[in-house]
Amino acid sequence: MSDAPPPPPDGLGIFEPPPAPPATTPDLPAYGEAPVARVAHPGRRALAFAIDGVGTVAVTFVVVFGGLILGSLEALVAIFWVPLASAVLATVLTATLGVTPGKWVAQVRVVHVVTGRPTGAWALLRSLVIVGPIVVTIVLLQLLTAVATEGYLPFDPLTAALVIPALLWIAMFVVVVATPRHRGLEDFAGRSIVVGR
Predict the structure, then answer these.
(1) 32 neighbors 117 (Cβ within 8 angstroms)
(2) Does the CA dihedral 114-110-96-123 come out positive or negative?
(3) Where is the RDD domain (predicted)?
(4) Which of 103-107, 119-123, 148-152 has the lowest mean pLDDT?
């Protein structure tokens, strides 16, 4: 004779096995990538980029002109150092948290395309691609100045310094819009994808 307790009356379900999992599983992303439904809209990415850019320009403006008002010509170095510090801060924040101030406001986050976690060191490559238009502009203006005949440039260097990066960033944004998962050149370099929060 078995020592097992008798089965419970019908309907109590005390000893019933747990229900079987559903026959269908949710759609899994290809190759472990983030789900398509979570990919951030390009407009939110543009908003985040604009907020970060305007913030950097505003801080630079305040530091430079605040220093000049106080009579400190050394404040002019902020034109170089503030954007550099902003780029370093954005890289560290992206690597560790996946957000910058602009991305936080726009409700988007940068994650690794396979793991869905912060990108870590890959954020450095991502940032290098983003600041690439500035580097290209500096090199291009240096080359054109070096080959200018008799010191004459057929364009205004200040205007070119603003227009060339803007055109390159617009071209990069077109790539973001055109790719199926809205991954730009910076995302391919940094093994990242931008998702909604």
Answers:
(1) no
(2) positive
(3) 39-189
(4) 148-152
